[in-house]
Amino acid sequence: MYRYLTEHKWKFEDKAARKIWIPKIAEWVNSEQCVLHDQDNLFGSKFNVLEDEYDEDILPFFSFALGVRNRPSLDDYINIWNDWESSVEQLSHDQCSKFWRFMLKPLTARSEKKLTDCLVKLPVISGNNEIFLLDKNDVFIPDNLHLKKLFEHQKVFVWCPQNLAPLTKCELFDIYRKIGARNISESICMEESSLINGVELKQVDPGNICNVKVLAKLILGFLSSSSLKMEPNKRHEAVQDLLNLSFFETKGPVTASYNLELSSGNIITKKTNRMVRWQRQSSKFFTQMNWQSEDASLIKYATYFSEAIAEGVLRENHDHVPELSNLIRLAFLLKFNIGEIEFLMESNNLHCEDEDFLSSAFPAN
Asked: What is the mean pLDDT of the chain?
């Protein structure tokens, strides 16, 4: 019957009579209760999906003659998320992935506001890779690599699928921010160790730790050639903060206590020894003494050093910290040998366009 009506381009005149026969349940249903397609297979309990009932060549008739929508809308996705908020504590990776993949499609300002106003809970990834829905006030974006590692076994970080391209991850985190999730680095209260309260400090030549000029060149190449493509003045400003640092060694461990307060009033506290710290307010870089001794872990120190430098340089571009940190760690293990670093940059397609800046910053070299 529907095929015959399709061939003759017949159309309903009476909107009140727009009902469709659903063979699976053997019932007539209103056309508003139907969609042609459900590409994510999320709405089987909400709508009658006509592609599951009829041949593909008949589907255009339902749209033309009966006004059936092609696919679920943004409102439908928001409604199903609200249903999950009220009915389930834990989501499957498949459900979460399909929902946020849809949300990554370009949204208008009006759509973004609707999303922000309607979503109360956000997906949180736990240490054992499970996805929970928590109040958005207790959900944080892992914009700091060290804090992410420190709190990774707590249910505090927004869910993000593995193997997601950096640009797509940035877009997803941006949506989370608009909804109400906060950066972990902005939400942490850090209590520093007593470095300035009587502990012996010794100022040292930066060259005892690294070759600052070679390090600066590597960073400048990354800032200009990676997906960041940072403008020259921004690159120079970021590296100048590194060049302004005074380096100090301390006999005691470089420790810190991090407190994360939740909306319930509960506080999660973590303590750690990072061996190094970039204290931005005073432009000082602290490093634990004897890190070069035989019983010290070179790879551990190189990791902490590279993370501190990358986080200090990219404080406004946290999503790129892991990539830069990996480069700096390798450069550290290569002892910042200029020949090795130039090959490292070449193999990673990094080109330093700031030789004049380097020459003015290191005139003696």
From this structure: 88
Q: What does residue 18 show for φ and ψ, rounded to 5 degrees?
A: -80, 85
Question: Is the CB of residue 189 less than 8 Å from the CB of residue 258?
Answer: yes
- Which amino acid type is present at position 238? A
Residue 21: partners with Cβ closer than 8 Å, 6 or more residues away: 27, 28
What is d(CA 365, CA 359) in angstroms, rounded to the nearest whole number?
8
* Rounded distance between C-alpha atoms, residue 231 and residue 242, angstroms: 17
Answer yes or no: pTM beyond 0.70.
no
Q: At what angle do helices 212-225 and 321-333 cross, to 10 degrees?
A: 150
Output the pLDDT for position 317: 82
User: How does strand 27-30 pair with strand 48-49?
Assistant: unpaired
Structure tokens given for 336: 């910042």
Amino acid at 61: F
C-alpha span between 309 and 132 (Å, rounded): 33
Q: Which amino acid is at 327?
A: L
3-state secondary structure of 185: helix
Looking at the chain, how many residues does it have?
365
| Residues in CB range of 358: below 8 A, 6 or more apart | 213, 216, 217, 220, 352
For residue 226, count other CB atoms closer than 10 A to its CB.
18
Residue (of 44, 37, 36) closest to 20 by Cα position: 36
How many Å apart are CA 117 and CA 163, to the nearest integer? 30
Domain segments of the chain: what residues? Answer: 2-66, 74-187, 193-361
Specify the residue for token string 């993370």.
307
Q: Collect all residues with Cβ–Cβ distance below 8 Å to 156 and sequence separation of at least 6.
A: 124, 138, 139, 140, 184, 260, 268
User: With 90 as the cut, is the pLDDT of residue 33 above it?
Assistant: yes
| Pair of tokens at residue 319 | 């999503």
Judge contact between 181 and 141, C-beta under 8 A.
yes
pLDDT, residue 263, reads 87
The lowest-confidence range among 195-199, 202-206, 241-245 is: 195-199
What is the rounded CA–CA span in Å between residue 121 and residue 100? 13
Q: What is the pLDDT of residues 159-168, one digit of tens each?
A: 988 777 767 8
Q: How far is CA 3 from the centre of its chain?
A: 49
**Cβ atoms of residues 322 and 177 within 8 Å:** no
